[in-house]
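Help!! Second protein's tokens look totally different from the first
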Amino acid sequence: MYRDISVNLVDVSKKIGTRYLFTGINLVINAGQCLAITGPNGSGKSTLLKIIAGLNQPTTGAIQIISNNKQLDAEERRGSLGLISPEIILYADLTGYENILFFTRLCGIECNQQMIEEYCRRVGLANDKEQLVRTYSTGMRQRLKFALMLAIQPGLWLLDEPSSNLDADGKKLIAQMIGRGLEQNATIIIATNEPWEAEHADYKIELV
């Protein structure tokens, strides 16, 4: 696993059609720091997050993901990060437990039954881990994505509207997890319109 991740945004711009969503973004986010990307719907928050993840390409500029003074290539970048997004699809015909087991095996991560049960307990799914994900509410699916984040333990967290569809208890859980992640030296980037999520940030980018 890659640790001590820093993210360098170097003159990053993105153009859709004839319109620039954002231009000339330059910033360095180091391990243990948090960046909040804010702005109205359609301003490019999720697009910028996808560019950092390597799922989209900037029109100009570059994203450098660095670990232990080494710039990671595309494959290494994928191994360094965890992405929570509405577009991340869970397997509806697997249980919560089976989803975690599948994705950790896909990532080459050892994860036994006791560990998975603990991750589910920490996100409030202890009694639901053996249920098919198709029976989960949207909030439960969001909690399961965070259980996966705990299991994968990436150095870089990319969170797109992380408290979406969560109740008050779920939002409190997410705040606690973000706080613990920063204490454990994770680098966290959040695309959000929630002021309380942005309170974790060392840096903010407001898109328009």
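Here's the second one for comparison:
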Amino acid sequence: MSSSKNVLIAEDSSVIQNLAKKILEFQNFKITAVKNGEQVIQLLEKESFDIVLLDINMPVMDGLECVAAIRENDKTADLPVVAITGNARNYTEEEYKDAGFNEVLMKPLNFDMLVKVVKDLTEA
């Protein structure tokens, strides 16, 4: 297997963050976890990641604002970004993709699907 891929998870729920982290680490991914979109933008300026998993509803900067900032930056414009959402705002999958997300995962998270999506987007 190639070297482990770097995954950045932005999720304000510690439970979901820790579960996703453990499951992806078990699949040999290297995980960095933060609590909001602003922290994602700050980290992306300093480090490089293979994929970003973004919760939609977060304090400070939500997932939609964050993906817009990621897409506007030449350095990160092509970075795979996955929305993680309870879909409280009732957006369609198409609307998430139009906003700049490569994929959408609904809560409660299907962890098999999480692993599949992360592998698919980082092995491309």
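Reply: Different proteins will give different token patterns, so don't panic. Residues 37-46+63-90+100-109 form one domain.
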